[in-house]
Amino acid sequence: MSEAYATAWRDSLANPEIFWSDAAAAIDWVVKPRRIYDRDDGWFAGGQLNTCFNAVDRHVLAGRGDQLALIYDSPVTGNVRCLTYSELLDHVGRTAGMLAALGVGKGDRVVIYMPMVPEAVFAMLACARIGAVHSVVFGGFAAPELAKRIDDAAPKLLLTASCGIESQKIIRYKPLIDEALALSQHQVEHVVLLQRDAHPADLDATCYLDWTVQVAEAIDAPCIAVAAGDPLYILYTSGTTGTPKGVVRENGGHAVALAWCMQHFYGVGPGETFWAASDVGWVVGHSFIVYGPLLAGATTVLFEGKPVGTPDAGTFWRTIVRHKVDIFFTAPTALRAIRKEDPEASFAKQLGIGGLRAVFLAGERADPDTLGWAESMLGVPVIDNWWQTELGWPATGTCLGLGDTRRRRGSAGLPLPGYDFAILDDDGLPVVRGATGSVTIRLPLPPGCFRSLWNNPAGYAKSFEAFEGYYETGDAGHIDPDGFINIMGRTDDIINVAGHRLSTGQMEQIIASQPEVAECAVIGADDSLKGMVPIGFAVAKTGYDVEGLEARIVARVRAELGAVAALRQVHIVRALPKTRSGKILRAVLRKLANGETCPTPPTIEDPAVLDDFRPLFAERCAV
Ligand code: COA
Ligand code: AMP
Predict the structure, then answer these.
(1) pLDDT of 621 above 80
(2) In terms of residue numbers, what domain contains 573?
């Protein structure tokens, strides 16, 4: 363990106000914070800043306007576009002007439903510039999910594009937006749509405005100062119910935490190139495609493609070499997809990896086998890091920027400064070292972590109710004798499919609304590519036609939740296994689907029910 890491972690917990006061010096404040931490007011109370100024303007003012800020690389359209900080400032200023001209002001919400194009980044920064609150919705969500977010965030404006491009598929956005607007109670004033050559949309309806026309008419809007505690964005994430949780990110803590993290965790500074192969619709995209690298004065890569098929399994390495990427961030699923197509890593051998220093993995558990394959193939450290939308930045990992290199395959690493982990049992007591329990973090959470859920104080409070004085992460895990944290899975019904966070409870709600379905269950089963995939089980109502019901259920989940749900397997069964008190034995179904040994539980109401399930997974089942 590096001495610098050990000292930083210790100091951050022993003297958090000094630690984060030092870290706050990396940010340009309009008004310096009055207090570094206040129980009621949070981090950096009294401070005023502008996140966009810190991410863009100040680098230009410091004379680095000609440095590359954003590289857009789109293998799906064949475009590469490089923007300097001066050019980025020009685009963001004018996009902010467009928002202001359309009546968007401080505190107003703007929903952004866009593919991975530079205008999505301009839009996020433009909101930050004028103190508006953006809420980016991932393009893989269907219209009803977008409608839920529109109703909750109540935006003035919706920003979108004519289409997204998924490998060879064109996803037409306008019909989807029309459907979402018809479903939502809240009415947006305008939809500003960016026309893309791949599929321009017909802008018939009156609420649609053409992005290019609006921006051309706009005049630059300046940065306005906002309070440290003012919201920068709302990002909806799956909770345990059908209603998504709107995680609110505050300007001050977010800027300080990300600036600290870029330098001391990833080890990335001004002029270096950082690429997070994620999507702006996820927290990784917010923190490490948009804000983190730009706050650090680095160059960020915006990649519109997939790890495979755009055009081949060498696309990551080609992009890394082409743009001189120093640090790369991706999801384990992406590496598994590449490995499946190119097990001998012939592309990496042929193309090389340029000056790449390290790969960081997050979004789901990094299985040791994939991690080992990647390390031996690339010859650079491959570092797991664990965190969540709620936290906003990594909570465990290896602080490369502090000179640490220690890592342990299968573990998500050591706690980052600011994070004090405890593994607790169901009674809230610490388990013995090495035993598995609920992964919790002692309060207060460090800067950048959520301090509220939009319109949902009760939902927010829930994360702190089970264990007094601790934040309940919803993950289960253990800490090894050397302090390495191992994340083993969720304690709730959230699953991670290809690094995408989804709720099986939400899928159950959708399936239960299918008229033929009496009851249902959805479980997450292990998958060699996506980490996990959902599998549904449904019992049909007596007298209803079950012919083709599986396909109808799959289609319904896709239509209501979105393609990203990736529910492809549904089984119609006579009954679900239940305890005598009526609880569905989902853990038993999970074990069966995973081919694990699964003796009939003593609490089961009717052991014969399980006989229907065993043949479904016969080839994987070791019962
Ligand atoms: N817009 C619209 N649809 C989308 C979408 C988006 N932004 N993202 C995914 N989808 C669709 C896919 O096209 C697919 O549709 P299909 O059922 O019609 O084929 C469906 O959602 C499921 O997508 P996915 O689970 O991603 O599977 P895939 O087979 O298309 O791709 C991988 C598999 C492994 C290549 C892909 O999942 C991947 O790149 N994973 C890495 C994810 C990642 O980086 N996550 C970062 C989180 S930190
Ligand atoms: P999200 O909020 O979408 O980032 O999802 C967060 C959840 O993904 C966590 O609570 C974990 O369950 C899982 N997760 C993220 N990163 C990791 C990791 N490195 N190891 C294990 N699980 C992870």
Answers:
(1) no
(2) 495-622
The answer to the question of residue 325 being in a domain is: no
Q: What is the CATH number of the domain that holds 418?
A: 3.40.50.12780
Q: Is 397's C-beta closer than 6 angstroms to any atom of ligand 1? A: no
* CA 410 from centroid of its chain's CA atoms: 21
The answer to whether residue 488 is domain-embedded is: no
Distance 174 CA to ligand 1 centre (A): 20
Q: In this predicted structure, what is the pLDDT of residue 604?
A: 87
DSSP state of 189: S
Give the strand pairing for 133-136 and 494-497: unpaired
Q: What residue's CA is closest to ligand 1, atom 6?
A: 140
pTM of the model: 0.96
DSSP E strand stretches across 137-260: 157-161, 163-166, 169-172, 190-194, 208-210, 226-227, 231-237, 245-250
By C-alpha distance, which of 252, 296, 306, 241 is closest to 274?
296
CB of 581 closer than 8 Å to CB of 573: no
**Whole-number Å distance between alpha carbons of 448 and 50:** 15
Q: Which ligand is nearest to the CA of 361?
A: 2
The reported pLDDT for the residue numbered 622 is 42
Which atom, in ligand 1's list, is nearest to the CA of 279? 46
Q: How far, in Å, is the centroid of ligand 2 from the Cα of 456?
A: 22
Report the pLDDT averaged over residues 579-586.
Answer: 91
Instruction: Assess whether the C-beta atom of 171 lies below 6 angstroms from ligand 1.
Output: yes
Whether 367 lines ligand 2, by a CB cut-off of 6 Å, is no
Both 437 and 545 in one domain: the answer is no
Ligand in closest contact with the CA of 487: 2
- Name which of 19-23, 238-242, 575-579 the model is least confident about: 238-242
Please work out whether the CB of residue 389 comes within 6 Å of at least one atom of ligand 2. yes
Residue 2 has pLDDT above 90, yes or no: no
Task: Give the mean pLDDT of the chain.
Answer: 95
**Is 383:358 a contact under the CB 8 Å cutoff?**
yes
Is the beta carbon of 380 within 6 A of some atom in ligand 1? no
478 belongs to a structural domain:
no
Q: What is the model's pLDDT at position 615?
A: 82
Task: Report the domain count for the chain.
Answer: 2
- Report pLDDT digits (tens) over 316-373: 999 999 999 999 999 999 999 999 999 999 999 999 999 999 999 999 999 999 999 9
Question: Is there a domain that residue 501 lies in?
Answer: yes
CATH at 540 = 3.30.300.30
Res 620 pLDDT > 70: no
**Is 208 within 8 Å of 191 (Cβ atoms)?**
yes
Binding site membership of 113 for ligand 1 (Cβ less than 6 Å):
no
In sequence order, the β-bridge partners of residue 382 are 359
| Percent with pLDDT over 70 in the chain | 99
Index of the ligand 2 atom closest to the CA of residue 494: 12
Asked if residue 434 and residue 292 are part of one domain, the reply reads yes
Tokens 């004798």 — which residue? Answer: 481
